Structure formats: structure tokens, C-alpha cells
Amino acid sequence: MTLILRDKASLRAWRAKVTEGTRIGFVPTMGALHEGHMSLMAQARETADVVIASIFVNPLQFGPNEDLSRYPRPIEADIEKLERAGVDALFLPTVEDMYPTGASTLVEETLVSGPLCGAMRPGHFRGVTTVVLKLFNLVQPHVAVFGQKDAQQCAVIERMVRDLDVPVEIARGPIVREADGLALSSRNVYLSAEDRAAAPLIHKSLQAVAAAHAAGEHDAERLAEIGRSMLAQSDRIKVQYWDVRDPESLGAITTVGARGALCAVAAHLGATRLIDNLVIGPEG
Description:
alpha/beta, Rossmann fold, Pantoate--beta-alanine Ligase, Chain: A,domain 2, 9 strands, ligase activity
């Protein structure tokens, strides 16, 4: 049975009872859990004695015209999934508990958060780093697991942990996909039938770029153009960015070298924004 901790006081009381030497694995989420999330829970279980998840739809990481109000919140179904996965505890706070009246402190990473989604969603990663640091302070995990689908988020959190000397090991879980290649996302439920049929082209564009790189193309802009041109085949897909970046700093590169590269794409299908990525190069 998964223990439900509905406020910070309950979480602190639970954490105080965890015996010394017990390794805690933590998976923070916004809920609407799918098999991608479940793979993160399983990964945490492999490296920890106790696994705790959180579900919190964080208002600080949503822009004024984004989908905060309609973000899916199937909490009872989520709890059932966590119980089946053997997750030990769930932190399920309210917005008022996480951000008490008068709260005015924000946490901001200023380099890795700048390009890609950071350029398209001003303030988004400031909301992410603020809530994640708060969660780390509350849970005090030994390891926290994040999904590679949100590659920039992973990089931002890794940089925050390094820069602020946060004693948490960050692990990345691989992207989990549908049979046709579409990366699992809580927002996939928004897709119309027509948009869902077009969506796998996003992953196919990444695969095409990986194949071009394997065949000898190392120019970053030419690789990105291959990806963009593939998505231009569908009038349902509106590309926000398709870019080839340094895999750690996410800085611009001209050539894919020994460090490899992160190929990252964000696109709208109707009102739904999807992201995906693929690492190419020595570790791709």
C-alpha cells in the first residue's frame, strides 16, 4: 500500500522515520502517469531501498497562455498505478502548501535553461528549478530519477545540483515510446485522431538525422535541416524548433564532434505541444 503524504508536515514526519542507511529514491512528477513514469519508478527501485514519488502540477512552470487549468489530473488512477508498482510513498501537496502566502524566493539557472524550450517558454525552467529544489529539501533523497524525454530539464537540474552542492544523485531514464515511435507524454491525450496519426513523424525526423550522421554528415545545421524538412511534409505539424546542440551545455555547435550532440525538437499539433530528442555521436 502506497502511503499518501498530503502536506509538508506529513512528509517531514515520514522522512524523520526513515532509518539511517536506507537509500531513498525519488521520482517527481506532475501526475497523469503513463508507462514512461512507471519505468522511472522501476529504475528508482533498482538503486534504492525506499521509493517515493510526488505528484504536483506546478503553476510556476506554466506560462500565462499554457495548459495549467486543463492539465490532466487523474489522481485516483495515478495512485492505483503507484500501488501496483510498489512505490512506498506519494507526496501529494496542494499549491497553498508548496507556496505559502508571501513566498517570494525563486531559483534560476541561467545558462543551460536559455535555449530551446527556455527561449520558447520564458520562466518555465525557473519554475522547474524552484519546485525541484524545494522537493529535494523536503524529501532529502539519495537519488532522483528524471526522464530523458525532457532532456533540457535533466540538464538544467544536473547543473543546479552541481552549482548549489545539492547532495542528490541525478539519474536519467530512457525515453519510452509507443510502437510507432511517439514518445509517451501526459499531453498525448490531447491529440485528435488526425494529429495522433501525424505525430510519429517527429521521431522519424530524429531517426533520419541519426542515420545521416551515421552516414558521415557532421554539419550541425545541415543535420537540423534534414529534420525540419521531414516535418515539413505534414501540414499538421508546426515546428517551434529543430536543433542540434552540445549534449551538456546545450550551446550552439557547428559540427558534431567527439562529444556527440543532442538533437531536440518541439512542435505543435493543433493546440498540443510535443517535445522529443535523440543523442547522436559516440554515446548515441
